[in-house]
Amino acid sequence: MASRGSVLSMEGVSLSFGDKRVLDGLTFSVARGECFGFLGPSGAGKTTTIKLLTRQLKKDAGRISLFGRPIENASDADYERIGILSDTSALYERMSIEDNLRLYAKIRGRGEGDIGRLLERMNLADDRKTLVKNCSKGMRQRAALLAALIHSPELLFLDEPTSGLDPAARAEVHRMLAELRSAGTTVFLTTHDMAEADSVCDRIAVLDEGRIAAEGEPQSLKLRYARNRVVVVTRTRGVVETAKDASAADGLRELFAAGEVLSIHSDEPNLEEVFLELTGREF
């Protein structure tokens, strides 16, 4: 159900391609200024969902809301408030990176004042004259992200934004996302990188076979699937494992009283382990 203040939402949305049901009763909403991670195995329907939300596809059933109104009523002005980075993001091969950004700035009715700053930010200033056809995959990905940001969109769809990037470039994208969120930009992010989702997303939804298997803040999902186990590293007794309940209290007190405890932690899964438990599949 679309909540007050939500930028986009789906309620009971289904879509089939022939006999194959791709999305099955999909329901979620994304609040203004939120970074919402949409995770799922390959073929789960993540890119299809983005195409529905950007009106590249039409649903079979359900309701989709964009900026507080039914998507069928969305105007061209609404879509001017959106930026998209996807596997089909268009950069003109025979134009330089800088000329591509100038073109997108003109199409979006923006000046060229931010282009130099954006190129510097993504470490592309020295490559600004390079033709896109001569760019590496990482350079193309960074340039496509800048093209999506050239008009300072209110809502940003990012489909695998750090695919093909080295660790330094990936970290820069993450810093940029943090700045965008601080400025109130809403981000809808798909990724295969569980560490990325854990660090940059306010909430995540795990999509499996066209349905949402779980939804929530990354930390709350990890705690939800935590194991009933406490691990204690001791001075002389090795690693001691005990249950995470009242029955283990006396044993833990004895270890502390004897000065044996070097470290103690409960055993929560990481987001990758939660993902695998929910879907039973690699991403």
Keywords:
single chain; 283 residues; alpha/beta; Rossmann fold; six-stranded mixed beta sheet; four-stranded antiparallel beta sheet; 32% helix; 28% strand; globular
Helix content: 25-40%
Radius of gyration: 23 Å
Classified by CATH, the class of the largest domain is Alpha Beta
Q: What fold name goes in the CATH topology slot of the largest domain?
A: Rossmann fold
For the largest beta sheet, what order do the strands appear in spatially?
A: 6-7-8-3-9-10
Main beta sheet strand tally, sense and closure: 6 strands, mixed
Number of helices: 10
Order of helices and strands: EEEHEEHEHHHEHEHEEHEEHEH
Structure description:
With 283 residues, the protein is α/β, with parallel strands linked by helices. It has two domains: 6-222, P-loop containing nucleotide triphosphate hydrolases (Rossmann fold); 227-267. Helices cover 32% and strands 28% of the residues. It has helices spanning 46-53, 76-79, 97-107, 115-121, 137-149, 167-182, 194-200, 218-224, 249-257, 271-279, and strands at residues 6-17, 20-31, 35-39, 61-66, 69-70, 82-85, 155-159, 186-190, 203-208, 211-216, 230-234, 239-242, 261-266. A hairpin with a 2-residue loop joins strand 9 (203-208) and strand 10. Helix 3 runs parallel beside helix 5. The longest helix has 16 residues, at 167-182. The two termini are 28 Å apart. The relative contact order is 0.14.
